[in-house]
TrEMBL record:
Signal sequence region: none
Record keywords: Leucine-rich repeat, Repeat
Source superkingdom: Eukaryota
SUPFAM superfamilies linked: L domain-like (SSF52058)
Keyword Secreted among UniProt keywords: no
Name of protein: TILB protein
């Protein structure tokens, strides 16, 4: 039963039954739930997979409890190779259940928009090497302290002020287009008063704008 992603085309789906491992005990779980019967029907691939047994509501609930994502405090979901829509949907389903996670790694997953996700206790988030284009597409992170966004495609600093009322202390924006914006460090620190470190460099005196800098930019000079 071939998987859709090229790097897994010679592997097959495998449902491991009768085990006691829970989601929060895995160091780097993989999101690989297979497509639904309806999905297979519309893709005309239902004949390629064995007919699945009917799953009762009790079995579905038992599987949900076994995943136990709600009790994860630290989780690494990097390098998932989300090659199909149902994998991405299942990935987001897991993220919505991470109500207690404090440290989360989502590196290199080709993610573009997680704005519908809320991580109420997350203090450290690493989403390096994804495809985010705006701060508006990040999850809701009311308790975030350390945020790493290196190697995405964030063009401007628009939306960064949404983190103004969070305890954000450290931010990494290396290798994003916004890094080349004029007065980049000054603009970031002026938008985030609690920020202490940007791109691995502590806040410097020159990163603080002079009190009258806004007036200077609004004034025009007549020659």
């Amino acid at each position: 039963f071939k998987l859709p992603s090229d790097s897994f085309k010679h592997l097959g789906w495998c449902d491991i039954e009768e085990h006691d491992v829970r989601g929060n005990q895995l160091h780097c779980p993989r999101v690989r739930e297979g497509p639904s019967e309806e999905e297979l029907f519309f893709r005309k691939e239902e004949q390629t997979l064995k007919k699945r047994k009917q799953v009762t509501d009790a079995e579905k609930w038992e599987k949900r409890l076994q995943e136990n994502w709600e009790n994860c405090a630290e989780l690494n979901l990097s390098f998932q190779d989300l090659g199909d829509l149902y994998q991405l949907e299942n990935f987001k389903r897991i993220l919505r259940r991470l109500i207690r996670v404090e440290k989360l790694w989502l590196v290199d997953n080709s993610l573009t928009d997680l704005s519908a996700i809320r991580l109420p206790r997350c203090r450290e988030l690493n989403v390096n090497k994804n495809h985010f284009t705006s701060f508006k597409h990040l999850p809701k992170l009311p308790q975030i302290q350390h945020l790493s966004l290196a190697e995405n495609n964030i063009m401007t600093l628009s939306g960064i002020s949404d983190f103004r009322h969070t305890p954000l202390e450290s931010l990494v924006l290396k290798r994003n287009p916004c890094e080349f914006q004029e007065r980049y460090r000054q603009l970031v620190f002026s938008s985030l008063p609690n920020l202490k470190v940007l791109d691995g460099i502590p806040k410097l005196p020159e990163d603080c704008s002079p009190p009258d800098i806004r007036f200077l930019y609004k004034m025009c000079t007549l020659l």
